[in-house]
Amino acid sequence: MCEPIEFYFDFSSPYAYLASERVDDLAAKHGRKVKWRPMLLGVVIQKTGLPLLLNVPIKGEYSMRDILRSARYYDVTFNFPAKFPVSAVTPSRAYYWLHGQDCAKARTFAHATFRAYWVDGRDISDMAVVLDIAAALGVDRDALAAGMVTPEIKERLKVETDTALAKGMCGAPYFVVDGEPFWGADRLPQIEKWLTTGGF
Amino acid sequence: MCEPIEFYFDFSSPYAYLASERVDDLAAKHGRKVKWRPMLLGVVIQKTGLPLLLNVPIKGEYSMRDILRSARYYDVTFNFPAKFPVSAVTPSRAYYWLHGQDCAKARTFAHATFRAYWVDGRDISDMAVVLDIAAALGVDRDALAAGMVTPEIKERLKVETDTALAKGMCGAPYFVVDGEPFWGADRLPQIEKWLTTGGF
Question: What domains sit in chain B, N to C, each tagged with a CATH number?
């Protein structure tokens, strides 16, 4: 098996951010690539009919503690942002436009966007912030601003979100490895075993 | 730190069963004991206001697949029972009565009850089944039948369930290690790091 690992995520998911800092290295250890696919988790949440995890009585309080502890467990720098959740529409569209220009740059932009939000607390739903993040990576600000609002890019984000749903995405991060779905940063050890053994 | 690890669970939770097959060995590696505390998860589920996981659209389908794969991952024999969920009132009361008589026997009974349900598909909500499980371990059937319905034992199960809630239990299995709460069989690696490092 040598297809890339599919990694579906919403930039505003804390567990997706934690996984984003680890999944490329994990895949590389096994000679695999990762296909990063930002999408809009709100669509999944609507389909499940569940409230946002952090708003669930008892579970929400536990989860905040778990997120912070998990960041320490994975040794990932993490600061819960003051504004949460935020819409991931703008950075996700920027990602897909960049991906069409330079897929390595798009990966770098995705990391920078996650960190801008989950380390520095910047509002990644704000177009100006997204343009700043990209410009710092040498991306032409005006080209990005124009490119990310074209009908093709808007449609691309919808299609990727629909694709994630069609693959059974039930939360973020969501991985598909050789057809097998894995939900959660806490499934990275199972993914590692899957890559090591060729499935179990 | 040498207090026992607190392990709260409902016998009808599949992830609690998986954890039950691993947590004692994990604790023993670090010179720690585990305090097993069966309780009634329905009370927690009511407080969270969430439906049963397996009934949630999309998430339910994923979770069934995840449970079966997780059993293979942990190398635990597992067969999803035809009747699910079942009430854990009867085996939980039996556990607490036995615990008052012989705590080692109570632990053996808890393992046998989990396996009767999650391997052999027996209906552990049925008093006759519970008495059979205990009798096979040398427990006096009549003494157990009488002991487990006393007001003291009924109250004990309520108190343990309330205690779990007071400690923030939001799902099963739920562990408390030196005051730190961990929810899920998938948090065993974090518990291991906690025991190794004395907290992180």
Answer: 5-197 (3.40.30.10)
